[in-house]
Specification:
Elements: E1 2-18, E2 21-38, E3 41-47, E4 51-52, E5 58-66, E6 72-80, E7 93-96, E8 105-109, E9 115-123, E10 128-135, E11 146-149, E12 151-155, E13 158-161, E14 165-169, E15 174-181, E16 194-202, E17 208-212, E18 222-223, H1 225-229, E19 232-234, E20 237-239, E21 249-255, E22 258-267, E23 272-280
Parallel strand pairs: 4-14
Antiparallel strand pairs: 1-2, 3-5, 5-10, 6-9, 6-12, 7-10, 8-9, 11-14, 12-13, 15-16, 16-23, 17-22, 18-23, 19-20, 19-23, 21-22
Length: about 280
């Protein structure tokens, strides 16, 4: 139970005439002290998950507890979303003691789309209110971004913050690019060699598993199988395609019927894979 001490002093100003002079004075009364017992409001914040994938919605619950035997009137709950997140319309659910109680809710304001305001008219002694809602992921999302959120309870001119809830967005971002080296020639002729490179990058913050690479070369060209099996690099280091004990590369890729070790069992974040091969016609 919270106790608020209220002190009060009265003041009196007066004047009187003494001979031809006017005398003024101000006096103070004694101080009156009153102890007021108030409800003690606790607030907690939680989310459905600490980790989310790309484009997954945020799901929050605010729990407000009247921890005393005194009713609390006019408890205002506010929650400002992190920049770039928006409240999802009609996703809010407000319960008091696990029951809908619209008579005890003055207003729910979400007009700004980036914050919510709920005014609880009456939170009875030992009662619990829960406010659940959803929000969109940040508009400028990237792998590893952390979304922080905190709620506040305003009661009797005292603001009580909740705990901070953090949610991390984890997902992979795979990019693939193709490079051809025509040995300085604009046009090639039969028996000319060309070097092809396939560059794959994981720019996300979680590993990619069972990455499969395929490349359809025109039937006009011939492929040197050894140039493929001996030229797979991970972050610049040559990987021996025959060494399956490394648990990184397996021979499952076929380019025009030729088996090529280009199934990557795991690609950790910031990894670059280069597959290089020579072809001619």
């Amino acid at each position: 139970m919270a106790t608020k001490i209220i002190n009060n002093v009265a003041q009196c100003s007066y004047a009187y005439t003494l001979a031809s002079d006017i005398v003024t004075n101000t006096i103070l009364s004694n101080t009156v002290t009153t102890n007021v017992d108030m409800a003690d409001i606790l607030i907690y914040k939680s989310s459905s998950s600490k980790y989310l994938g790309k484009d997954e919605e945020l799901s929050y619950t605010i729990t407000v507890v009247n921890n005393t035997d005194i009713d609390a009137k006019g408890v205002v709950i506010t929650d400002v979303l992190q920049n770039g997140c928006t409240y999802l319309k009609n996703s809010m659910d407000v319960l008091i003691n696990k029951t809908n109680s619209t008579n005890n809710i003055d207003y729910i304001n979400t007009s700004s789309n980036s914050s919510i305001n709920v005014n609880i008219l009456l939170l009875s002694a030992r009662s619990v209110a829960t406010i659940s809602f959803k929000a969109s992921p940040p508009s400028s999302i990237y792998p590893g971004i952390i979304v922080n959120n905190i709620a506040n309870a305003l009661y009797n001119s005292v603001t009580t913050p909740s705990n901070i809830v953090s949610t991390t967005y984890n997902y992979a971002v795979v990019e693939i690019n193709k490079i051809v080296d025509k040995k300085g020639k604009t046009n090639i002729q039969c028996n000319d060699n060309m070097d092809y490179q396939i560059i794959i990058q994981n720019k996300g913050n979680v590993p990619v598993i069972n990455l499969k690479v395929s490349d359809k070369i025109d039937d006009l060209f011939n492929i040197y199988p050894t140039s493929l099996t001996q030229n797979i690099k991970i972050n610049g280091s040559l990987i021996d395609g025959t060494n399956v004990s490394a648990s990184i590369v397996d021979s499952v890729l076929y380019i025009n019927g030729i088996s090529v070790p280009a199934k990557i069992s795991e690609v950790i974040p910031t990894t670059t894979i280069t597959i290089q091969g020579k072809i001619n016609c």
